[in-house]
Amino acid sequence: MAVETSSIAGEPHNSFEEVIAADSQPEIHPDLALVERAKAGDTAAFEQLVRQYERQIFRTAQHITQNREDAEDITQDVFFKAFQKLDQFQGNSKFSTWLVRIAVNESLMRLRKRKTSKTVSMDQDVETDEGSIPRDFAEWRPNPEQNYSQAELAEILRKTIAGLPPGFRTVFTLRDIENLSTEETAAALGLSVPAVKSRLLRARLQLRERLSRYFRQNNEASK
Amino acid sequence: MNCTEFLSKLTDYFDGQIDPALLTEVKAHLGTCHHCEVVVDTTRKTIDVYRGAVNYEFPEELSNRLRAAVMERCLASGKLPNIEVKASTKPAGQ
User: Fold this and answer.
1) Partner residue opposite A153 with nearest CB, options B47, B53, B87
2) What is the phi/psi pair of residue A41, to 5°?
3) For chain B, which residues score pLDDT lower than 70?
4) pTM
5) CA quadruple B52, B93, A174, B7: dihedral sign
C-alpha cells in the first residue's frame, strides 16, 4: 500500500489535530498519528508502535545477524533509539522504513563487533564479481523443498543465506522476505534504487546457485 | 537480446517493472534460451522457498518481554514529561 507522507514534512505549523481534521488529506498514515501522540508524551501510543513493528524488526535483525539473542538485543535498542530520536522523524518516509533503517544499522554494527578484524558494511564484497554470472544451469526437481524435513530445509536455507555477504543478505531480506518495495528498501538502506536492484540480482543469483546443490535433479549431494 | 542483456533486466522482470517493448524482447529470449529459462525458474523458486519457509518464531512471551523491556528503558530515560504511565506488560490482544 503506497502512502504519501511527504506533505506532512512541509507543514510544520499544523497541529496534529489540524492535520487529522483535514478531510482533504485522507492519505495520512495512521502511524503518523501515533508518532505525534508519542511526541506529545503519550507512551501508550509509542507502545502501540512497538507492538505493530516488533516482529518485523526482530525478524530483520535475525536475518541480518543470523543470531536470535542478538536480534532480541537489537530489537530493544532499535525502539529505544527511535523513542529517543522521535523528534527527528519528520514523516518524509514511512515510520516502519525509518525503524528498519535503524535496525539495519544496529545489526551491521553488531556484526562488526562480532568480527572485529573485518569490516562489515553494506558495501562489503560489492566490488567483486562473484556470483554475478550464473554457472549452474541444472533444472530443479519439482517442489524440491519437499524432499527435506522442515528442520533440514530450515538448516539448508539458514546456511545458504548466512553465506551471503551482509550487504547482499540485507537487501534480499528486506526486498524478498520482508516484502519491502525496491524504493522502501533503498530508503531503509540509504542506497539508490539502481544499487538496490544490482545487489538484489546478485543476492538472488548467489542464493540460487547455492541452493541448486540441494535442489537440482539427479542430485547426489543432498541426501 | 543476448544472455548478458537478459540478466541485466532480470530484477525488473521479476518485479514487474519492465516496459512492454522490453518485456516482449525478454520473453522472446526466454523462448530460445534454455539456460536463461532455467535461471528464471530456479531464481523464482529460490525467492518462493525463502518466503514460504523462513518463519522465525516470535512467541507471545518474547513479544511481551521485549515490549516491557523497551517501555521500561524509555520511561527510565525520563525523556518525555507529563507522561501518563501506561507502559504495560499486558499481553497483546488482551
Assistant:
1) B53
2) 110, 10
3) 54-56, 79-94
4) 0.76
5) positive
